[in-house]
Amino acid sequence: MKKFAGFFVLLALVAVPAVAQDAPSQDTPPQGTPSQSTSSSQTTPDENQKPEKKVSTLFSPKYEISVGYAHRSSYYSLSAPRTGMNGWYGSFDYNWKSFLGFEAEIQGVYKTITSPVAATATPSIYTVMAGPEIFPFRHHKLTPFGHFLYGEGYLRQAYGPYGGIGSAVNTFFSHAWEGGGGLDVHIKPHWSVQGMFDYGSTHFDFASGAPGQGSYRVSAGIVYYFGER
Question: pTM (2 decimals)?
Answer without folding.
Answer: 0.71
